[in-house]
Amino acid sequence: MKTVAIGGLGAIGLELARALDRGVEGFRLIAVASRDTEKARAAVAGFRAPPRVVPVEALAEAEIVIEAAPAAAFAAIARPAIAAGRVLLACSGGALMRQMELVEEAEASGARIIVPTGALVGLDAVRAAAYGRVDSVVIETRKPPRGLAGAPYLERNGISLDGLAEAKLVFQGNALEAAEGFPANVNVAAALAMAGIGPQRTEVRLWADPAAERNIHTIRVEAEAARFSMTIEGMPSPDNPRTGRMTPLSVLACLRGLTETLKIGS
Ligand SMILES: NC(=O)C1=CN([C@@H]2O[C@H](COP(=O)(O)OP(=O)(O)OC[C@H]3O[C@@H](n4cnc5c(N)ncnc54)[C@H](OP(=O)(O)O)[C@@H]3O)[C@@H](O)[C@H]2O)C=CC1
Ligand SMILES: O=C([O-])CC(=O)C(=O)O
């Protein structure tokens, strides 16, 4: 049995905690941390085996630490886990991409940092293609306006999405600029950039679309070995419209992949 701890109990973290409590072969949830300790206690109170509610630094007691908190809380969860040489599953890929010195720290401590595919599709193909020449990687994301509300880039540039009548291209730039401007929205772009040709060369286009009922991500890759495009239309989570329901499922698949005898896909 590998021990697991979760930092953040929102749309992703609570789903994962519930799934682990129902039983995921080979893994046992021992601790959780969140911003509001009382809320966290109440959330896990009815569990079959309630995990301890601990401060974020104590999550590193577990062999596997799942980070599922806002980007601003990423380092507080990641650093102790990395220092203790743990396996860190990081949902806030954009935050990681902006603090890549953590990867060097992990190398020194023997920790591993794993970014699940999350709400995206096709990172296996992107990683494989990146062993050869890749000419371009583009991601186009389309979300209902409520899934983008409050992003720092929109506020800084005075872009209002209220009463939007048709789809609007709200951002075009590289993955680093996107992660800075939309920390709660473009973790998929960050994961794509880290899987492929890096944040400077990965192009991001972000649309607010009042007709969209799903979070739609299309990637287009031009590489020497292959040209491919893939689209995923994720159902927004009922708890947080910015986050797709695929994300906790992807983290579960990633977790199982750490130990399963037969593992399909890279
Ligand atoms: N890789 C991917 O494909 C995707 C990644 N994400 C990213 O994953 C992360 C989690 O997303 P999601 O579950 O939707 O987010 P939510 O906003 O639904 O939940 C975040 C949770 O973190 C808690 N929290 C807030 N501050 C802290 C803190 N300082 N320390 C510990 N916990 C804290 C919140 O507590 P409280 O409720 O008390 O505030 C809440 O329980 C985000 O960074 C998001 O952008 C999201 C979607 C897809
Ligand atoms: O869930 C999604 O569609 C993607 C998302 O929010 C992110 O990348 O942060």
TrEMBL record:
EC number(s) given by UniProt: 1.4.1.21
Entry annotated with the keyword Nuclease: no
Oxidoreductase in keyword set: yes
Residue ranges annotated for the Aspartate/homoserine dehydrogenase NAD-binding domain, each copy included: 8-116
Location of the active site: 217
EC top class named in words: oxidoreductase
Pathway field: Cofactor biosynthesis; NAD(+) biosynthesis; iminoaspartate from L-aspartate (dehydrogenase route): step 1/1
Catalytic reactions on record: L-aspartate + NAD(+) + H2O = oxaloacetate + NH4(+) + NADH + H(+); L-aspartate + NADP(+) + H2O = oxaloacetate + NH4(+) + NADPH + H(+)
Domain Aspartate dehydrogenase: 165-252
Protein residues bound to NAD(+): 119, 187
Alphabetized UniProt keyword annotations: NAD, NADP, Oxidoreductase, Pyridine nucleotide biosynthesis
Record-linked Pfam families: Asp_DH_C, NAD_binding_3
The family this protein is said to belong to: Belongs to the L-aspartate dehydrogenase family.
Additional observations: The iminoaspartate product is unstable in aqueous solution and can decompose to oxaloacetate and ammonia.
PANTHER family recorded: ASPARTATE DEHYDROGENASE DOMAIN-CONTAINING PROTEIN, L-ASPARTATE DEHYDROGENASE-RELATED
Job description of the protein: Specifically catalyzes the NAD or NADP-dependent dehydrogenation of L-aspartate to iminoaspartate.
Protein name (database record): L-aspartate dehydrogenase
